[in-house]
């Protein structure tokens, strides 16, 4: 039966109740060797009777490490960010570490403030899943704690780890899929001017050139323009569109339906990222899948290596193409 006390029991209380030293209690509750079985049983019985629970946070600070990793994301509503976080969490749990998560809300000032709070908590290192963090912010925090970025920020200071997706390879996969289906008038719906979107656009242009289709290249940032061109049905009308991300692809398919353009019969659409909605949309969306959980695990592994004194590095994950209903043979 547990004893009733006015305050939480301490390791000193357990030591006094078991008739041993504080250091012996510490060894016993950690499960370390060097404690005789009958002594360990007496200590654990006293700890249970008093309701004592050891404090792993305090123990880790004594060792100079919190065994806690901070993960800062752009937007927790994003399936991409959530999947990367799950990859970090799974790898951290396997390594006996804890993860603290914060949402930067796609705002650089919020992101910086939450990084400060993470460091105040004593995290050993930080994984940033963001394209919003500027080089100055990343550099400032990298001087204080090991840091790995998942994604492709515009500029990355030296000494910062990075895990990114091979955006050029992923776009080539989508393009060659459409070419194999007989498409030649393939347009590209471009995203932002962030590095990942630019790399995907450049890969589209390079692939069209390699196939001798440079005269048919169309890069457009406005989906309404592409829908108008497809609805016109002329010789120059696109029969397929490769989108810079799934959000753009979903918007394009919705506009196509509103305009009476059948997907994929009259217009094939391919996306990028393979978000959760891609398999729920009708028609289901063909999309390039970034191995997001693997990228999170790679980031955690690299951060662990940096904590052990190894240099930062840039690791590139290989994407795959998930073929679904939104792409089909040229009609």
Structural account:
The chain has 331 residues and is of the alpha/beta class. It has three domains: 11-54, 434 Repressor (Amino-terminal Domain), CATH 1.10.260; 65-166 and 292-319, 3-Layer(aba) Sandwich (Rossmann fold); 167-289, Response regulator (Rossmann fold, 3-Layer(aba) Sandwich), CATH 3.40.50.2300. Helix content is 44%, strand content 16%. It is built from twelve helices and twelve strands. It has helices at 11-18, 22-30, 37-50, 56-63, 79-94, 108-120, 135-142, 167-180, 195-210, 223-232, 246-258, 292-307; strands at residues 68-73, 98-103, 125-129, 147-150, 161-165, 186-189, 218-220, 240-243, 268-273, 286-289, 314-317, 320-322. The strands form two sheets. It has a six-stranded parallel β-sheet, sandwiched between helices. The protein has a six-stranded mixed β-sheet with strand order 7-6-8-9-10-12, with helices on both faces. α9 (195-210) links the parallel β6 (186-189) and β7 (218-220). α1 (11-18) packs across α2, α1 crosses α3 (37-50) and α5 (79-94) crosses α12.
Summary, kept brief:
This protein is an alpha/beta fold. The protein has helices at residues 11-18, 22-30, 37-50, 56-63, 79-94, 108-120, 135-142, 167-180, 195-210, 223-232, 246-258, 292-307, and strands spanning 68-73, 98-103, 125-129, 147-150, 161-165, 186-189, 218-220, 240-243, 268-273, 286-289, 314-317, 320-322. The model has no long low-confidence stretch (mean pLDDT 90).
What keywords describe this structure?
single chain, 331 residues, alpha/beta, 434 Repressor (Amino-terminal Domain), Rossmann fold, 12 helices
